[in-house]
Amino acid sequence: MQASNLGRQAPRDLPRAARPLHVTVLGAGKIGRTIAAMLHDSGDYRVSVVDHDARRLDGLPRGVLARAGDPTEPGTCAALLAGADAVLNALPFHAATSVASVAARLGVHYFDLTEDVAATQAIRQLAQGARSVLMPQCGLAPGFIGVVGHDLAQRFLRGGGELLDLQMRVGALPRYPSNALKYNLTWSTEGLINEYCNPCEAIVDGRRVELTALEGLESFALDGIEYEAFNTSGGLGTLPETLAGRARHVDYKSIRYPGHCALMKLLLNDLRLRERRDWLRDIFDRAIPLTEQDVVIVFATATGYPAGGERGRGPLTQASFSARIGGVDGAGGHVNAIQLTTAAGICTALDLVATGALPQAGFVRQESMPLQAFLSNRFGRHYTQHPLQESLV
């Protein structure tokens, strides 16, 4: 693909801040670096990147400040965040609560990518009375899929219609699978295992429930390619709470190639590796190759009765959103699809807070972002401007 400046396009409708905002990015992994590059390329943010390993800070874009330190230690974290307007946390999920606590105390806007339900609940408590925004779950899933799901739901709920079912499916997959799992590592191994082991929130028959991960297996085809999907934890974000009492069925499943779920059940259940997640992480990191050739698939469908018609509601109707998103070659090299979409999600959230389009303090949910505002944002545009992408709305 052609080279791209990751953040060079300005939003069409939103005023810019009077001065460049100072943003600290925690974590110099691939996603953290992509976040830093997007924000730096925009010209509207002064970016610092922090990592506990100074060697990981080599090769950052010129103009991005590199700072070595352990942000999981509260005192060090406070020193690293001094003078920052916002912190974007790209560390593993278990660091979310401690960093959010420091940010709330200092009045620094906080954004993260966590899929961990317990961490999000803790951050919600920290946000009570906070002077700054605390906005977790800003990536792909949770994150963008919640924005899509809420938009589809509102098509039925707006004006007094009825939402029956909302199904959300997301997968970050290798374009050329070659192993038995038909999977390659493209993001956090710890986060992946967390999704496969923890309970999964859903709405079933109008009630909020917890489902078992790796259950609910289904098969479907999209653009002529066969996939499977199954329950995984955390992808819904705060949607079960937002839609409680307003929908009959809401669920989230991860998309994989056929056969993946059965092998994961063998590893986690039959071989009992869910009891030794550290072992499983080591096995995955040693045996499953990384890939830069990936694709992100987003597929969501809502069914219900829109408002209107002679009886106060229209006919039974379905509305869907579908996207296949590839990577891009940027000025700093290739950015794969999961890095691009994850970074675009958290940068869009920051941009909408910075320009006053979202609340300026307290806990902010992903679904607070209107889908159109997200997709028209200079960072959110990455979900609609790549050759593998198709959007059917």
TrEMBL record:
Residues 23-128 form the Saccharopine dehydrogenase NADP binding domain. Keywords: Oxidoreductase. Its EC number is 1.5.1.-. SUPFAM superfamilies: Glyceraldehyde-3-phosphate dehydrogenase-like, C-terminal domain (SSF55347), NAD(P)-binding Rossmann-fold domains (SSF51735). Residues 139-369 form the Saccharopine dehydrogenase-like C-terminal domain. Pfam families: Sacchrp_dh_C, Sacchrp_dh_NADP. InterPro entries: AASS, NAD(P)-bd_dom_sf, Sacchrp_dh-like_C, Sacchrp_dh_NADP-bd. One of its GO terms (molecular function) is oxidoreductase activity. It is an enzyme of class 1 (oxidoreductase). This is Saccharopine dehydrogenase/saccharopine reductase. It comes from Cupriavidus taiwanensis. The lineage of its organism: Bacteria, Pseudomonadati, Pseudomonadota, Betaproteobacteria, Burkholderiales.
